[in-house]
Write a structure and sequence with these properties.
four-stranded mixed beta sheet; about 160 residues; about 25% strand; Alpha-Beta Plaits; 4 strands; alpha+beta
């Protein structure tokens, strides 16, 4: 093996580590294990047959639902479902404290002999701060502590 081959392999390995977002080589197997576990949870919870998870730079998580029947929902329903999935993923991911965003893509993938077609036009991106924030009650709806206070002061 010559020196240029060694340098080439080192550069490729460095790029792969950088793409995964790990600062330590020891973190790579753990990241793959966590993503695999999270993928299984998404498949189970949302009853999807083909789910792909991609972590970019350790800060952006993309969930692709491949050939999902959810693609047929209306635009509003799809956005609500995407938010539900993104929220679940953000809250379930062990590295959630470093996530910047979560995207959900309703992906159509078809193959014809040597040709392939991919449609990723239905994509929704959410900031993780929005997804991880405690849920607020709808406007005009009192929380339990507010109702107790009102009942206490207004017999």
């Amino acid at each position: 093996m010559n020196i240029s081959s060694i340098i080439f392999r080192f550069v490729i390995l460095s790029l792969c580590i950088d793409a995964v977002g790990c600062t330590d080589v020891k973190e790579i197997p753990q990241s793959f294990k966590e993503l695999s576990s999270l993928r299984s949870q998404v498949i189970e919870k949302f009853h999807e047959a083909d789910v792909s998870l991609n972590l970019s730079k350790g800060r952006h998580l993309m969930v692709s639902l491949v050939n999902s029947p959810l693609k047929q929902l209306s635009k509003t329903e799809k956005q609500l479902k995407a938010r539900e999935i993104a929220s679940f993923v953000a809250k379930s991911y062990k590295g959630k404290e470093v996530l910047d965003s979560v995207s959900v893509v309703f992906l159509v993938r078809k193959s014809f002999f040597i040709f392939s077609f991919t449609d990723s036009s239905d994509s929704y991106r959410f900031k993780s701060t929005e997804l991880l924030a405690p849920e607020q009650p709808p406007a005009g709806e009192a929380t339990a502590s507010q109702r107790i206070l009102v009942e206490f002061w207004c017999p």
